[in-house]
Amino acid sequence: MALFPQGLTQIDKRCANAGERAVLHQLKRCLSDDYLVWHDVPIGPKARQPDFVVFSPRRGLLILEVKHWAWGSLRAYNRDSVELATARGLVTVAHPLLQARGYALELNEVLERDPALIQDAPPFRGKSRVPYGWGCVLSNVRRKQVEGTDFAEVFPDFKTLLRDDLSEELDPYEFEKRLWGMYAGWTPQALTLPQRDRVRWHLFPEVRVQQASLFEAQEQTAPTLALPDLMQVMDLQQEQVARTLGEGHRVIHGPAGSGKTMILIFRAQQLAAAAASERPILVLCFNRILAQRIEGSLRQRGVDERVQVRTFHGWCQDMVRTYQLDVPQHLAGDAYFAALAETVERAVARGLVPGGQYLALLIDEAHDFEDAWLRVAARMVDPATNALLVLYDDAQSIYQKKRRRFNFASVGIQAQGRTSILKLNYRNTAEVLALAMHCAQGLLADRPATDDQMQAVQPSSAGRRGPLPVLLQAPNVRAEAELVAERIAQALADGRAPDEVAVLFRTRQRMVLVAAALQRRGIAVQSMATPGFRAFVWKRPSVRLMTLHSSKGLEFPLVVIAGLDALPWKGEPLDEELRLLYVGMTRATHELVLSAAGTSPMVQRVHNSLEAVALQFAEQEAHV
Ligand SMILES: Nc1ncnc2c1ncn2[C@@H]1O[C@H](COP(=O)(O)OP(=O)(O)OP(=O)(O)O)[C@@H](O)[C@H]1O
């Protein structure tokens, strides 16, 4: 069966009439697995919305317009327009074939501008490799009704499907052949997977993977007209998950780097565009830097302030201000935050803070939320939409003081039958992911679970390759700081920008020496250990020194994890510290460097894992 990235049930619900539904059914019944079918989605730069887009790597792109006109209502027709008798009187509309042809030619023009999709051999040198075609379906007109009329002169048989072509009795192969007959061009070679993805990139700007940049969040860069060499789009599973989110509660489990935040941003953008109501949409996460990243990405995509992005505690502070709640003022630090959350929880339970305030609520990194926070969040969604999206990865839960046996129902989230699982990690190279997984063995074991429980999902690598991670070992902290600074200086000399580098630490204390060693080499630094530090200024180019905890949700081309010997920190359980290390390692998009002063069981563990991973890749190369 063809793949319907918007979900069959959802398309069925959105079909405008019985005709579209019959076409959907026939496409589902007759087309084989390699076809992709979209219904009524905006395509191309002008966001046209044809009824159906059918795409196959063997056959190319086909645009179908469906009209459920009764034969008796067609009063007149010519090649440009059709005159219809309707309840509103006579109405003249564009000929559906003209409409479909216009969309198809427009798309072909876009594809022909992409050198990677151009044929290089005669007879079609310079033309797009993607065959294209168009047709119309008059789903309420039978062949015998048009016999003996001039219908076929205006609706050529090879471009027009009638009700007879939608019959259950029709041989699927015959139906497929009818579709092939609608194509204007033909290339003997099937498209490769990267070419197929390039076509999706051109067709659907909303599924393009845009590298989420903290820096662009502050400084808008001018849009570039050149096409990127590497066109990244959501994979088909991501697209399917993203497009089928719909209303009601939804849960997505996915390991580090599998595109959860990307899907959240897609969804927030879609909700904002579709919402007729003025009610705000709320995005919640735990840490401030991630909130900044998400907000930046949304604003970059033109989503306005109606989508609010807050950390859970930031949102609690909003509630305290708005509803004049009392939080004990003598508290500070963790005690203050706990009291803040409890105050808001109580106020929501008593109705002092009204529930249902948000049209939709999206929670990133929900594994860092306490049960009570999730309960509060679930109550803040408008019951009319119930639109709550929860993104979860148990392996990355680093703020839970005690491991919980989690159950979504107990916090008011209906996850049954509403859960999707992503498995592919796109962020890291195969080498970085292999090391992160090797070190975190045990935490990541696939755990079968019902929809209602949290699931542990093992990531699989999307296959991008890079250098093996390295471990720098020094006799003491001073020497370690020098080694780290030297390594970063070398990376900058080789062309890395300071913004592309983050150094992660278990605690702030260890940042001081590394910051000084970098500054001595003339490298600009922003460090969380600087007295009075409040937030990073993302538009100031510099290497960033941050805690492992605050690196959550972020990514950098070069990540250094310094002070490995400080893990586990002061009697913290080993498993929890391994989780933290896993989060840190999976921040690296290209290169990962680890460093330690002296040795410790953790340093030894990483050392052993590195050897095992190096061997694994050497064996793989030998096989190739
Ligand atoms: N299909 C894809 N093709 C290429 N890159 C992708 C794809 N999906 C996601 N990415 C990239 O992978 C990176 C990780 O995505 P994202 O931050 O959304 O993951 P995540 O699941 O939220 O990760 P984490 O839980 O570790 O924060 C991003 O740079 C994103 O652009």
TrEMBL record:
Record-annotated NERD domain positions: 15-130
Enzyme class, UniProt record, top EC level: isomerase
Residues annotated as domain UvrD-like helicase ATP-binding: 233-552
Coiled-coil annotated spans: none
Database matches in CDD domains: SF1_C_UvrD
Enzyme Commission number, as recorded: 5.6.2.4
Keyword Metal-binding tagged: no
An annotated GO BP: recombinational repair
Catalytic activity, reaction form: ATP + H2O = ADP + phosphate + H(+); Couples ATP hydrolysis with the unwinding of duplex DNA by translocating in the 3'-5' direction
PROSITE patterns from the UniProt entry: NERD (PS50965), UVRD_HELICASE_ATP_BIND (PS51198)
UniProt keywords, alphabetically: ATP-binding, Helicase, Hydrolase, Isomerase, Nucleotide-binding
Protein name (Swiss-Prot/TrEMBL): DNA 3'-5' helicase
Species this chain originates from: Extensimonas vulgaris
